[in-house]
Amino acid sequence: LDRLDDARRVGEKGRSVASRLLEQHPTHTLALRARALLADSLADIEVNELRPAKSLALLDEAAHDWAVMIQVDPSNLIAWSNLAASRLSAAGVLQSLGRPRAAIARLRELQLLDAKAESSWMVAGSLQENRARMARIAGETGDVRLSEQLRRESLKHFEAATRDLAAGSFELSYWRLENLVGDIEIALSQGDHRRAYGIARD
Fold first, then answer.
1. Among 10, 31, 128, 137, which is least packed, fewest CB within 10 Å?
2. Would you give the DSSP letter of residue 192?
3. At what angle do helices 52-72 and 77-96 cross, to 10 degrees?
């Protein structure tokens, strides 16, 4: 409906209510979840309104609340996944500001998720995207060795995320194709047009 001012007003009111509850009960999971989701949504509005600094601040606040939720309940894989999404969004904002190394630093914060990847396809999928994004950024900054290392890590997480999908299924075929597109993007970020062409041709 393109009512961004109304959305911002409602979102900030909701965050205020959640914050008041959290002042009394700092580990109230419903309030933490609500405030984090609202911050993530408000960050989208701010970046669309060309206010990246405000968007980045909101994403950091959301990440803080997801991290608190994880401390309360380390088995909450949705909170882990949402933390990963907030860090990915923050990295995207930093890239738009021409700060690729800061973007990589935000993405590196998710390395603590690695231990969860083997037991959760959701976490493994988030880490696959995380490493692929880092690989592209590293390639764009000229660090091909790091880019290749991250590409291999991305592939490892991709295999973990898709291992339970049925052979020959549409879903597995789709995600394999999506992963190949990611490999092409990484090759292009490294300036390796020959490899990108070879992947696309095969």
1. 10
2. -
3. 160
